[in-house]
Amino acid sequence: MNLFEQLGWLGHEQLILCSDADIGYRGIIAIHSTALGPAVGGTRWWVYPSEETALVDAIRLSRGMSYKNALARLPLGGGKSVIMGSAGAVDRRAILRAHGRFIERLGGLYITAEDVGTTPDDMEIMAETTRFVAGRAGGSGDPSPHTGRGVFRAMQAAAAFRWGSDDLKGKTVALQGCGNVGYHLASQIAAVGGRLVVSDLDGAKVRRVVAEFGATEAPADRIHAVEADVFAPCALGGILHDTSIAALRAAIICGGANNQLLEPRHGQVLADKGILYVPDYVANAGGVTFGGSVEVLKVTAAEAAARVDQIYDTTLMVLERARTERVPPSEAADRLAEERIRSGTLD
């Protein structure tokens, strides 16, 4: 499948390749859909093994944002941008300003915020060259506490669906990734009496969660195989594939990572194994829900927080629809998001 065929198959509207050779800037802006509103999605700064990998990441993540916003009933479309990092020294400020200039040229069609590898301070720098940036220190700020809250609420809903109670006290959660989202998710699980088994490639992050929340450490390459009630992937995507699924020993999967399924068919593989999967873009919508509500839709912080908690109801709705239609939750969520995007309404 060539590039234009792939974009058409996934429903993308635009793909913008950005470059400033003088400062070593290479970026990609992917706009999946503006059917429900301006495309919203963060800027990811990452050292990719190839240009093709960066392109695929931007395409997949932007589509995920469209679906995420549609399921969260936000009048926003989906986009994503990536900055291709390098191993050598670069002028980070100059690159961020260059990225902002490309975003500004789109005239509000795409609004960015922080993502993996970027921070609220980076958003302040981008704001020097574009008006279309959220997640700044003076705005909605760091989205990770709200993303963590949304995943927690989705996990409670999945527990209610699977076990008849949303009480996570005494339940064991295997948490992959102790970064910003993982840390905030761990704090909420610990607060209700859940048991944590955690891993991260960064030992300092693991030690922090162990010290603060009484977690147990597991090897990073085996966290998915830990015997647990819930497996919570909160690192990078593609964790759920044939090999990892075969080793899973959890009843529920619910985490903050994007694009957890390596291939769409793995949703059915999980269902066949009797594992309840909460689609990633349903669970991890808390950050964009809070930030988009405060900075784009101009609602109060209290109202935005209430919208994050509604991820509980959205999760139950998707799981119920999957059961009724006898399809995996991943397919049920896709169908619902696609219906809303095609109709241009959030009903």
Please give the CATH architecture of the largest domain.
3-Layer(aba) Sandwich
- Largest sheet composition: 6 strands, mixed
How many separate structural domains? 2
Strand content: 5-15%
Q: What is the number of helical segments per DSSP (H or I, 4+ residues)?
A: 14
Q: How many angstroms does the end-to-end distance come to?
A: 34 Å
The global form is globular
Order of helical and strand elements: HEEEEHEHEHHEHEHEEHEHEHHHHH
Overall pLDDT confidence: 94
Brief summary:
The chain has 14 helices and twelve strands. With 347 residues, the chain is α/β, with parallel strands linked by helices. The model has no long low-confidence stretch (mean pLDDT 94).
Explain what you see.
- The chain has 347 residues and is of the alpha/beta class.
- It has 2 domains: 3-64 and 76-126, Leucine Dehydrogenase, chain A, domain 1 (Rossmann fold, 3-Layer(aba) Sandwich); 144-284 and 314-340, 3-Layer(aba) Sandwich (Rossmann fold).
- It has helices at 3-10, 51-71, 92-105, 120-126, 144-163, 180-191, 203-213, 242-247, 266-272, 280-283, 286-296, 301-309, 311-325, 329-343, and strands spanning 14-20, 25-33, 39-40, 43-46, 77-84, 110-111, 172-176, 195-199, 216-217, 230-233, 252-253, 276-277.
- The strands form 2 sheets. Strands 1, 2, 3, 4, 5 and 6 form a 6-stranded mixed beta sheet that branches. The protein has a 6-stranded parallel beta sheet with strand order 9-8-7-10-11-12, with helices on both faces.
